Amino acid sequence: MTTFKALIAGKGETGTSLAFGDFAEADLMEGDVTVRVTHSTVNYKDGLALTGRAPVVRRWPMIPGIDFAGRVEASDNPAFKPGDLVILNGWGTGETHLGAYAQKSRVKADWLVPLPEGMNPGEAMAIGTAGYTAMLCVLALEKHGLKPSDGPVVVTGAAGGVGSVAIALLAKAGWHVIASTGRAEEADYLKGLGAAEIIDRNELSAPGRPLGKERWIAGVDAVGAHTLANLLSMTKYGGAIAACGLAQGMDLPASVAPFILRNVALLGVDSVMCPKPRRLEAWGRLASDLDRDKLAAMTTTIPLEDVIETGRAILDGKVRGRVVVEVG
């Protein structure tokens, strides 16, 4: 029987467990493409799954990990052939479908996108779901009709994965980027990515007024709760906030005032079930618009064995930028 190395999450009478072990290829789940996984990453959602701080995993046993890049080993779908380099983000991998922290994965062809020309698998996972989500946020703001000449853009959770990539993308596009962070020591890092201003997250994280002083025309928010409410209350007339995360909470203690008095829009951004045409658009734009030197500056690389510890660290706010996992 063919086996491969995997991180296996289990659940028993005494609780949940995480352990590296051998997994049988015959036990992989249904799909028409088998991929030899070479790289993965650690996103905030992976941290929640690895620590059990939120009920991300909904099938047991489970191989965690919501994204991967790798090479097709076998395919029953004409869209892919052995040797093709591919990327997967979301679609329930690591939640209801065996995920990325393993040397092999079997998935549906519709879940995969080709690795963009000129990008290697390590770079794809340096971007990962966090960076791909950041690009979806930028696209949402653009499709709303907003442009750099309209005013500043604010990015919350700026030193995290979504925030770091969003800053780099927006700055390259000509935006005046205001970065909100709770880590003052990361100011030089954020300015290196292209942030023009740094503000303390405490300015946004406490309960605020229904309407505040207009400070920005657009925003990318990965935090939620009071932070998102305050972003909306300080958005200029006709502006929009793209929301994609819940690091502070799932609630939104806001009023309707920004929406009906300033014509502000709240743009919800989902990466998990995002339709394939939009995924291809996002990855195409990442390949052309994201500065590879800035991507390298925000990236650290770890072996698969370190993902459990890194999952804890990302929830504790101790991870800067992006983490690439070399699966091997």
Can you put this structure into words, describing what you see?
- This protein has 328 residues and is an alpha/beta fold.
- The chain folds into 2 domains: 3-115 and 298-326, Alpha-Beta Complex (Quinone Oxidoreductase, Chain A, domain 1); 128-268, NAD(P)-binding Rossmann-like Domain (Rossmann fold, 3-Layer(aba) Sandwich).
- The protein contains 10 helices and 15 strands.
- The protein has helices spanning 44-51, 121-143, 161-172, 187-193, 202-205, 225-233, 257-261, 276-289, 292-297, 307-315, and strands at residues 3-12, 15-24, 33-41, 67-75, 85-89, 104-107, 112-114, 153-155, 177-181, 197-200, 216-221, 235-243, 265-268, 299-303, 322-326.
- α7 (257-261) links the parallel β12 and β13.
- α2 (121-143) crosses α3 (161-172).
The second-level CATH architecture of the largest domain is Alpha-Beta Complex
- Which H/E pattern describes the elements? EEEHEEEEHEHEHEHEHEHEHHEHE
Proportion of residues in β-strands: 25-35%
Radius of gyration: 20 Å
What's the total number of strands? 15
Mean pLDDT over the residues: 96
Q: What's the CATH H-level superfamily name of the largest domain?
A: Medium-chain alcohol dehydrogenases, catalytic domain
What low-confidence regions span 5 or more consecutive residues with pLDDT below 50?
A: none
First-residue to last-residue Cα separation? 20 Å
The quaternary state of the protein chains shown equals: single chain
Gross morphology is globular
> How would you classify the helix and strand content by structural class?
alpha/beta
What is the CATH C-level name of the largest domain?
Answer: Alpha Beta
